[in-house]
Design goal:
alpha+beta, Double Stranded RNA Binding Domain, 2 domains, two-stranded antiparallel ribbon
Amino acid sequence: MSLRFLFAWLALGLLVAGGCAAGPKVITDFDPSVEFSSFHTFAFSGVTDRGREIQTASDHSPLRGRIKAMIDEQLAARGVRQVGLEDHPDLLVHIFFGVLDEQSVESISRMPGFFGRYAEAYEYHDGGWTPIKTTRVITHEDHEGTLIVDLAQPSKKSLVGRAVIRAILGDNLEENFKLANKGIAEAFKDYPSAK
């Protein structure tokens, strides 16, 4: 095999692997009739974590606190500052967290391949060893995290915006927070500017 051919396959493999990087999927929707430039203050109205309602005032979770700080940073960059609920904010923010655990099982049947890569089993027949077809069962487990950020206008008691952020979560907490931060930044990139 020529060296050039090997490098071409290696480069193609890296491109494919880079293209498959699992980043957050973000969907946003904002009410086009609402003048978002009139919002100057916001407050977190609640948190729903895996179906359980969390009281905002008594919520001392550092994990949820980091998500709130990311949202606060995005709204502050748009001129909307955080206040308490008692200060009658222009905008209410409610956060929903969820994790869906999915498991899939895959059965792979392979014949022995080039350089014996898949030749894991042999049978002895009539004085010789013969490679046989092997089956391998592989189990995949994914954890899809979903973060929903709802924006509501309290004066009209209506939802004015929603961002849904989904990503496959890994075992590294900091990497998961990087995914969340990237998704929140992407969601608020679409936050309507002044008309």
